[in-house]
């Protein structure tokens, strides 16, 4: 920290309370929270991060108005999780609703996030109701499913069984037991963030060879609506809402959109090598842009330089990078592209 001669030293500790948290400021999250439900006191909440199993997690501590102390606080917690997920794309690890006047503040009325974080970790908050994600449920994983299995089901039961499968997959990425999820609510209202949405969409693409837009997962779609969307792609090869609402002059645009979203070819395994897949039209498009703009183009790349001070533990760095590459198949993928039927990607 640098000081200016003749001026007092100032330290903004907001970022130390939240650290990275995907670049979201704690005061922005706190504003979102206090507007989530009428039972919450404005300017009386704290957002901060804690480390859970070596991962940064978001915690919300919020005061409740006195007249709402005996209200349905589970509904209030649900509203907070939904608001933060929709506005900031973050999953809230823990929501703690406390009595009015119990959140620590400075003499000038500013929230003391560091003190609030300490009380949370030491379990010294004046809690009315709290709810935290059970990390021990993160190992739950539903049964693997394939397009062939779904098509083998009786047509009358496909929808309900696919809903159950999606519920299990969502529970896995949310790190909760499926029994804690309400199937009538949207995924966004359950606290799924943007990274989890990508993980879920990737899992569905790998297992079922379907493409689910991020807007579908992060929007207001329920499990039933999402199951219908996925099922229509499996049965008919195209999303059910592609042509809806188009007429007249929009028909040509609709047909073009439909053609671009049709799953041809599917990411079906080909040949004797189980790790070789056909490429998608999106991959061909990105490859073509890369070739025309040059390898040094920043259009499709994010460049970031980080200076690390101190002794580098090469073994730990190598282990971390290997873990990331092992987890994400796309980082182990190479492409052979000739813009023909022989185009392929190999993992």
Give a written overview of the molecule.
This protein has 347 residues and is of the alpha+beta class. It has three domains: 14-132, GMP Synthetase, Chain A, domain 3; 139-242, ACP-like (Non-ribosomal Peptide Synthetase Peptidyl Carrier Protein, Chain A, Orthogonal Bundle); 276-346, no CATH class. Helices cover 39% and strands 13% of the residues. It contains twelve helices and seven strands. The protein has helices at residues 14-18, 26-34, 73-88, 113-121, 147-152, 158-174, 194-208, 214-218, 223-236, 250-261, 281-293, 314-327; strands spanning 40-52, 55-64, 92-98, 127-132, 276-277, 334-336, 344-346. The strands form two sheets. The chain has a four-stranded mixed β-sheet, sandwiched between helices. The protein has a three-stranded antiparallel β-sheet with strand order 5-7-6, with no helix packed on it. The longest helix is centred in the middle third of the chain and has 17 residues, at 158-174. It is globular, with a radius of gyration of 24 Å. The chain starts with 13 loop residues before the first helix and ends with a strand. Residues 1-16 and 240-272 have low confidence and may be disordered.
């Amino acid at each position: 920290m640098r000081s200016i001669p003749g001026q007092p030293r100032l330290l903004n500790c907001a970022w130390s309370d939240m650290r990275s948290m995907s670049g979201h400021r704690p005061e922005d999250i706190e504003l979102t929270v206090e507007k989530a439900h009428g039972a919450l006191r404005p300017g009386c909440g704290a957002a901060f991060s804690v480390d859970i199993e070596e991962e940064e997690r978001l915690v919300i501590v919020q005061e409740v108005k006195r007249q709402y102390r005996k209200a349905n606080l589970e509904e209030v917690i649900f509203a907070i999780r939904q608001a933060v997920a929709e506005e900031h794309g973050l999953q809230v690890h823990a929501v703690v609703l406390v009595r009015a006047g119990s959140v620590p503040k400075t003499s000038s009325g500013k929230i003391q996030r560091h003190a609030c974080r300490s009380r949370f970790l030491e379990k010294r908050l004046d809690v009315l109701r709290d709810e935290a994600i059970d990390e021990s449920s993160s190992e739950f994983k539903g049964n693997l499913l394939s397009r062939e299995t779904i098509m083998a089901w009786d047509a009358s039961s496909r929808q309900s069984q696919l809903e159950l499968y999606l519920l299990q997959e969502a529970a896995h990425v949310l790190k909760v037991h499926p029994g804690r999820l309400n199937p009538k609510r949207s995924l966004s209202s359950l606290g799924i963030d943007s990274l989890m949405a990508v993980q879920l969409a990737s899992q569905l693409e790998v297992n079922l060879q379907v493409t689910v837009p991020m807007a579908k997962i992060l929007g207001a779609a329920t499990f039933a609506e999402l199951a219908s969307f996925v099922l229509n792609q499996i049965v008919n090869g195209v999303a059910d809402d592609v042509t809806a609402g188009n007429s007249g002059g929009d028909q040509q645009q609709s047909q073009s959109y439909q053609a671009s979203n049709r799953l041809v070819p599917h990411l079906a395994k080909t040949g004797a090598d189980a790790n070789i897949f056909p490429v998608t039209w999106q991959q061909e498009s990105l490859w073509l842009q890369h070739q025309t703009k040059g390898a040094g183009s920043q259009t499709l790349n994010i460049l970031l330089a980080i200076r690390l001070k101190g002794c580098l533990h090469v073994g730990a760095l190598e282990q971390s990078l290997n873990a990331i590459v092992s987890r994400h198949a796309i980082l182990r993928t190479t492409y052979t592209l000739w813009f023909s039927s022989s185009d392929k990607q190999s993992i």
